[in-house]
Structures are given as C-alpha cells and as structure tokens.
Amino acid sequence: MLGPLARRELLRDRNFIAGRWQGAAGGATLDVADPATLQVIARVADSGAADARAALDSAQAAFPAWRERTGRERAQLLKQWHALILAHQEDLARIISAEQGKPLAEARGEVLYGASYVEWFAEEATRAHGDIIPEPVRGKKLMAVKEPVGVVAAITPWNFPLAMIARKLAPALAAGCCVVAKPAEDTPLTALALVALAEEAGLPPGTINLVTASRERTPEVVDLWLRDARVRKITFTGSTPVGKQLARASADTLKKLSLELGGNAPFIVFEDADLDAAVAGLMAAKFRNGGQTCVCPNRVYVHESVHERFVDKLAARVGALTVGPATDDASQIGPMINARAVQKIERHVRDAQARGARVVVGGRALPDIGAGHYYAPTVLIDADPGMELAQEETFGPVVPVFRFADEDEAVRLANDTPFGLAAYFYSRDAARIWRVAERLESGIVGINEGALAAEAAPFGGIKESGYGREGSRHGLDDYMHLKYLCQGGLR
Question: Pfam families this protein is in (predicted)?
C-alpha cells in the first residue's frame, strides 16, 4: 500500500505530452495494483494510437530547438533534474515499493542508481567529441562530428521502474534527442513521477513525452512509433521475443536500435574459490529484487569437490531470508510482480523435481503472508541442463545448483545458451581468471563480484541478449550518429 508522500502531487495519473498532463484520447483508464496486497493504488491513462501520435508530434516539433542547445545548456537542465530526484528520494522510493513490490531499502537504492545515470550523462553531454582526420591531400580538411539521431522511442520494463527509464532518457536528452516513452503497464507511476520532476527542473515542453497503456493496448502505441519514420531510434529493455519483434517491425524505416533483452546468467564456483565470498556474492546477485532482474544468476555451477560445503552455506543464508511486503522494515524479499510470475516459478520448480532435482530450502508459494504474489526463496540441487529452469529465466528467488568436474566443462555449460547478458565466476587462480573471463560468451562478467551495475560501466549483452550499451562513455554514442565533413579548396 502506498504510504504518505511529502509531495502527493508526484503521484500522477495522466499522460505527459507537449508539456501538458492529459488523459487518454478515448478516456480509458488502467488500474495499477500493489502486488503485496492486490489493492488498486491508482488509475492511469490507457492510451492508444491517437495518444502515441500526439506524443510523437510533440517530440518532433521540439527536436530542432533542443538539438540546437549547447551540450552545457542541456547538462545544466539534467543536473537540476538530478538534484530534484535526490531531494525526493523517499517519495520516489515509496512509489516504487507500492507498485513494484520491492522492499523500501531496495527502492531507495534504485532511486540513487537511476539518478546516477542522469548525473553521468549530464556530464557526458559536454564531451560528445568528434575527430579531426589527417588530410589525405593538401587543400582538404576532414572532420567527423556527432549529432543526435532524432526522436527516440523508449520502452521500459517493470522490474526497475525508475532506473530503466532514467538510463534511457538521460543519454537521449544529453545527446540532443527528444523522447517518446512508454513505461510497463504494471509500474507506470514511478515514470510519471520522474517526468513530473523533469518538468519541474525546466526541461522544455516536448523534450519528454510519456504515455501509459495496458498490456492489451501497448501494441497500438508501439506499432505507431515503429511505423513512423520520424522515430529514428528504439531503445527497449525486456524479453528477447519482443526485442526480435521490434527489430523486425523497425526494419522498414531502418531505425537505430538498442535492445537489452533476456538473460540466463551462469554463476561458476571453482574449487579454489573463497566459498564465503562466493555465497555472499550469489546472495547479492540473485536475491536483489527477489530474483526479478535480467542479470541475476539463473544457473549456479559448483565444482564437485566443494559442492556440499557450498550448498550448506548457501542454504543457511537463503533459509534466513525474510519474505514480506515493502511496508515491513524486516522484509528482504517482496512479492513477485503478478500471478503470472508465480505461475512460471512454480512450473520451473515442478519440472525440476520431476526430472530429479531436490529442494533443500523453500520450493513453495507463500499464500499465508497475504493476498500478494509471494514465493519462498528456494535452493534446488541435482539440477541438470535438460530442466526448464536451465533453459529459461525463472525471474524469481530460485537457485538451481549444478555440479561440474573441470574448467572446460564449466565454461561449456555456462556458454550453452542462446543468451549472453551477464556471467559470474569465483576463483583465486590468476591465470584461470583471465582464461575464463575471455572464454565466457557474455557482455558483462563479474569476477569474484556479485554487484555489477555502475553508471560508468557499459551495460548490455551479446547473442540473443541484444545489442547496444547503456551507461559509460559509450552510452551516449547509441543516441548519436557520426557525420563526416570534407572541405576542399583550401589551397
């Protein structure tokens, strides 16, 4: 349930288009429910094609003036936005917890994490350097300059409702692009609050346009943006099937794409690893947001010589986790986002048990906590590659543990997936660290570390986990194109 807010006006329920708050053109609304209680906490606009078109018209109209601003001018506005986000950390965290379900301490951390991207790209706005190219013949000057791609359409997921949209809007705006955005239907309130603060910071009308829509009407909104040539870039975080659909649908207008898609992250514990550190790293990586992250370990491979000791240590930590609503300060694991999420977890655990896996801790839904979508933190052993949980992201607090015999087998099993977003391993052998880091097919590798995310680092995957990078000095380039200038007649 949404607690008291210092500024109740941050709780918005309308679209933001051309600097104005307005309902959906057809007047439809969408219920937003607290996954801990299933109570409706707000009703927001359920938008369609007319709203998507109005948002795009606004962004296109605002683009020429916004791109003409200097990088320093754009940076100053982004810094004002950043300051307002920090000043309203508590209110934003309460909104996140209410609509997404994560414990309040985690929600506060997400606000800081999302804000770090706004600050980072405010600084990068002044560093969009080009190149002076040595002239091949006398009398010519060759230059390469970076320019904003144009209008960007941003489509964001529910699991990090502030961080995901912040790390898309911030580089787009810093580069000089204007944005049309659609947050996930489960968690639109955080994005609306974030945009309200952007308006307060002084970002000009039309630079950010945000529409909300139900699962049923989302294709109507997104398809319009995909078909319209005025949208020059799509940035999307979500499932691989949807990412592929966006890539196909955007081909007719050859839009630039950034796709951060599904993962199936391996977590390898070698025989020479510090087991206590490995358990601590796994707990941090796996149980953040109740396992509902794209980079959380989905397959844990432990060398057979340390398997029993590792599982004993892990089971003790997992069994001690407290599950409950965000309103309870003791809660470490909140509810899953919806009933479909719990059903998928249950299906994976049942399939694993049917194929010979054994539950060490957990392994069941928790209806006794309340009306929300709760599932017990779970450890499974005797997992094998044929199980559904080895092939698909479980996206929940379930740790399947696999055995392996040697380094080659561990790397082979880790890479045996079409995905390549994140991977982790623990070892104290310096030579092995370099060998394994080079052989893992993944865009992100954690080496003796479970916490990977940082605004200064490039975030993104390979293979069917997508392409493009968010964060780092490379993140701005995804919102710009390179123009070559050749001037002759200088001799």
Answer: Aldedh (PF00171)
CA dist., res. 460 & res. 423, Å (int)? 12
The b-or-e profile of 258-277 (16+ CB within 10 A means b, else e) is: bbbbbbbbbbbbbbebebee
- Rounded-to-10 torsion of CA 443, 449, 453, 455: -100
Which one-letter amino acid corresponds to residue 207? T
Domain count, the chain: 2
Phi, psi of 79 (to 5 degrees): -65, -35
Write the CA distances from 201 to 64, 82, 173, 409, integer angstroms: 20, 9, 13, 53
- The label of the residue with tokens 């379930």 reads 398
pLDDT in tens, 26-68: 999 999 999 999 999 999 999 999 999 999 999 999 999 999 9
Alpha helices (H) along 250-405: 275-286, 307-319, 339-354, 388-391
275: in domain: yes
- Determine, yes or no, domain membership for 440: yes
Q: 356 lies in which domain range?
A: 266-447
Buried b / exposed e over 348-378, threshold 16 CB at 10 Å, is: bbebbeeeebebbbbbebbeebeebbbbbbb
Query: Rg of the chain's alpha carbons, rounded to an integer?
Result: 23
Q: How far apart are CA 20 and CA 25, in angstroms?
A: 13
- 353 with 366, same domain? yes
How many Å apart are CA 116 and CA 168, to the nearest integer?
12
Instruction: For residues 328 and 104, give the distance between their C-alpha atoms in angstroms, rounded to a whole number.
Output: 9
| 59 Cβ contact partners less than 8 Å away, ≥ 6 residues apart | 151, 178, 179, 180, 206, 207, 209
pLDDT, one tens digit per residue, over 414-429 is 999 999 999 999 999 9
Q: Does residue 1 lie in a domain region?
A: no
| Residue 379 · residue 314 · CB < 8 Å | yes
Q: How far apart are CA 389 and CA 343, in angstroms?
A: 13
CA 422, CA 435: separation in Å to the nearest integer? 17
Residue 292: DSSP 8-state: -
- Given the residues 260, 407, 455, 470, the one annotated as active site: 260
| Cβ atoms of 293 and 422 closer than 8 Å | no
> Is-above-0.90 flag for pTM?
yes
Token pair belonging to 217: 């009407």
Alpha-carbon gap, residue 155 to 172, rounded angstroms: 13
> Hey, which residues does 425 pair with through a beta bridge?
268, 447
260 is catalytic: yes
